[in-house]
Amino acid sequence: MTAEILSVGTELLLGNIVNTDARDLAVALSGLGIDVHWQSVVGDNPARLRRALAVAAERAELIVTTGGLGPTCDDLTKQTVMDFFGLPMVRDARAEADLRAFFAGREMPENNLRQCDLPVGCTPFYNSCGTAPGCGVRTPDGHVLVLLPGPPKELNAMLLLSALPWLRQFSGAVIVSHDLMCFGMGESAIETRLRDRMNALQNPTLAPYAKEGEVRLRVTVKAATTAEAEALMAPVIAEVRETLGDIVYGMDVPSIEAVVLERLRALGKTFAAAESCTGGLLAQRVTAIPGASEAFAGGVTVYTNPVKAWLGVDPETLDRCGAVSAEVAEQLAVRVREKLGADYGLGITGLAGPGTDGVHEVGTVYVALATPDKTEVRPLALGARSDRSRVRALAVNHALDLLRRELEKNEQ
After folding, report:
1. Which end of the chain is more exposed for a tag (fewer CB within 10 A), N or C?
2. Domains and CATH numbers, the chain
3. What is the pTM of this model?
C-alpha cells in the first residue's frame, strides 16, 4: 500500500513548529510495510487543502492527515476531507461523553462539540491525551483515510493505541532497516567502494547518508515477516562489514561515544581526557550518556599553556614545539591518564579557528592515545575552510575513534 502524509497547519509552513508528526508517522508506517511515497504540508485553508487532497488521491492509496481536528474556526481538516470524499458525518456518542467528562465542573464552549462529528461507518480513535478524536475509514472509491490530531503527544498516543492496530489489516508485509555507522572515510569514498553493489540491490536496498563527520549506511528490506527481513539483510550487512573493515564502528548505535563507553564497561576499563581546542566537548558528549561514570574517570580542559604545564606537560616541550604539536598531544594523554588513574588517556590540542597562530592552518589538530604500554598520535588536517564547531566535533570523533580501535584490539 502506498501512502501520503498530509500535514495541515499554517504554523508548519511558517516554520513556527517543526513537523515531527510526519517523521513519527513515516517511521510507524514503514514498520507496517506501508510505503510512504510522499509527504505534503498545507496551511489552514480549505481550498488549498482540497487541491492537496486531489493530488494525494491520484497517487496514494492511504492518506494520513495530521492537524486541524480541534474546535476553532481554523480546524477545518475533517470537514474538508469528508466533503472532498463525499462522506457524511454523525455525532459520536462516546466522543461527546468523553468531551463532557473532560469539561466536568467547567463551562464548555459549544464549538467543542464539532470535534465529536465523525464520518459514518468509520472506526473512531478516541483521544487519551486531548479532546479531538481521530478516525480511520474507507471511502467509496477505495481510498483509506486516517485522520490524526496535530499535537505530537496526542498523535503518538493515538497512533500507538488505535491507528496502527487498525492499519494492520491493510499490511501484508514489514519494512525493516539497520544502520551501519562509519567513521574514517568520507561518503564519496564509501559510495565508490559500494557503488556496484548498491546499484544491483533492489530488496534489500543500501544507501549512504552523510552526517557531521560520519556516514550512515542504511540497509532496508520489505518482507512478509521480520525474521524473513533479517535473513535477507544479513548477507548484505556482512558484505558491507567485510568491504569497509574497521571504519564500521557499530550497527543501530546512537553515537561513537556510546560505543566506546559500552566497550570500556564490558572490559572493566576507564579513560580520562585532556582537551585544549575542544574545550571540554568530549567530556560533555560522554557525560550526556547515563552511566558514563563507570568508564569515564574525568576530563581536564587545558586551554592555556599554564594549565597544560600544571597537568604535567613539559614547559620546555611547550616552548620548543608549541601547544599545537604532536609532542604536546602525547604528553597530555600520558599525564591525564596518570593523574586521574585511568587505563587510557586521550589528549587533544589544535587550532579550531577562526583566527590563526601564524604557524598552523585552521583545522590543524593532534589527538593522542596513551595506554599503559604505548602512545599513539593522529595528526589531522581538518580543513582551513572548516568552521570552529566542525573542527571541534571532528577532533572529538577522531579521539574517540583512536580509543575505539584500541579497545577492539583488546576484544580480539
Report:
1. C
2. 2-170 (3.40.980.10), 175-251 (3.30.70.2860), 256-411 (3.90.950.20)
3. 0.76
